[in-house]
Design a protein that fits this description.
alpha+beta, about 270 residues, 16 strands, single chain, 4 helices, 10-stranded antiparallel β-sheet
Length: about 270
C-alpha cells in the first residue's frame, strides 16, 4: 500500500486505484533559483535589498491587504491575471497563465497579488524582519506529486534552492481567513488554491492541480483557474526526492500580474528600497 498523500493540511491514501478521505497532513512546495548574471562589460547591479519595516508598522502588516491596495497602479480595469514564469536548470521552461477569481475570493487574490508585486509586506523567515519585495521571485517549486499537483510559495524557498532543509514549513508571518465557496471545487485541472495547515492558516504557499481532487473540496481556498495543462503535467512528473522535492530545481522566476487587455510592463509594484 502506498503512503498517505500529503497536500498541506489534507491527506489521502490510495486503495485499489482510488483515493479515500485524508489521514495525514498535506503540504507541497516550490523553490527558487538565482538571478541572471550581468554582462561583463556592464557595471554589476547591486541586489535588491528588502526594506525592513519599522516596528510600529508590524501590527498592521498581519492584517489582510485589500484588493484595492494590492492592485494600486495596475493599468486597465479587466479581470486580474497571473503569469508564472518557470525556469529549470537556468533555462525557460514555460509560463502558466491563470485567471484570478477576485469576485469569488477577494482576500486570497489580494494577498497573492500583493506578494507577487512586492507591495504586501511579509516576514523574512531567516532574519525575522518584515520586508517589502516580491516573495515569489526566484521561488522554488518545492514539492510535486505526479498526477495530482505542484506546490510553491514557501518563503524559505525564495532565493534558496535548499529551503534551509525545511521545505514546506515556512510562512509569510501572517494568515488570512478562508474563503470557501460551494460553487468552487477541485473538479477540473488547473485549480489554483492556497495550501494550509488547517482552517484559517493560509499564507503564501499555493498549489496548482493537475487533475480533479475532490477530497480537497471545502478545505482549501480556491482563487484562480490556470491553463497550460501540458506544462503543469511536465512539472508534476519530474523526478523527485523522497520528500517530493524535484531533483532538478524548478523555479518561479517571477509572477507577473496584469489585467485582461492591459500589458505586463507595469504589472509589478514599486521596487523595494534600502
Amino acid at each position: 500500500m502506498n503512503p498517505p498523500l500529503k497536500v498541506d493540511g489534507v491527506s489521502a491514501r490510495r486503495r485499489s486505484g482510488t483515493w479515500t478521505q485524508p489521514l495525514g497532513t498535506l503540504v507541497l512546495s516550490l523553490l527558487s533559483l538565482g538571478m541572471g548574471v550581468a554582462p561583463a562589460v556592464a557595471k554589476p547591479k547591486l541586489p535588491v535589498v528588502a526594506r525592513p519595516l519599522p516596528a510600529a508598522e508590524v501590527p498592521a502588516m498581519t492584517t489582510p491587504m485589500s484588493l484595492e491596495q494590492a492592485t494600486a497602479g495596475l493599468p486597465g480595469t479587466g479581470p486580474l491575471q497571473a503569469e508564472l514564469e518557470l525556469f529549470s536548470d537556468s533555462k525557460p521552461l514555460g509560463t502558466i497563465h491563470c485567471q484570478l477569481l477576485s469576485d469569488k475570493a477577494p482576500l486570497a487574490v489580494a494577498q497573492f497579488v500583493g506578494l507577487a508585486r512586492g507591495v504586501r509586506p511579509w516576514k523574512e523567515p531567516r532574519s525575522q524582519k518584515w520586508v517589502q519585495r516580491p516573495l515569489y521571485e526566484n521561488n522554488l517549486v518545492h514539492r510535486v506529486i505526479a498526477g495530482q499537483l505542484l506546490q510553491a510559495g514557501d518563503p524559505l524557498c525564495t532565493g534558496d534552492a535548499s529551503c534551509s532543509g525545511m521545505a514546506g514549513s515556512g510562512d509569510p508571518g501572517f494568515a488570512i481567513p478562508d474563503e470557501l465557496r460551494p460553487e468552487l471545487r477541485f473538479d477540473r485541472p488547473g485549480v489554483l488554491a492556497w495550501a494550509n495547515r488547517g482552517p484559517g492558516t493560509s499564507g503564501s504557499q499555493f498549489v496548482i492541480t493537475e487533475k480533479e481532487l475532490p477530497w480537497l473540496d471545502g478545505r482549501h481556498t480556491i482563487f484562480g483557474l490556470c491553463q497550460d495543462q501540458a506544462l503543469i503535467e511536465q512539472v508534476t512528473h519530474v523526478e523527485f526526492s523522497a520528500r517530493d522535492m524535484p531533483k532538478v530545481a524548478i523555479v518561479i522566476k517571477r509572477i507577473n500580474i496584469t489585467r485582461q487587455g492591459a500589458g505586463a510592463a507595469t504589472a509589478r509594484g514599486p521596487r523595494a528600497k534600502k
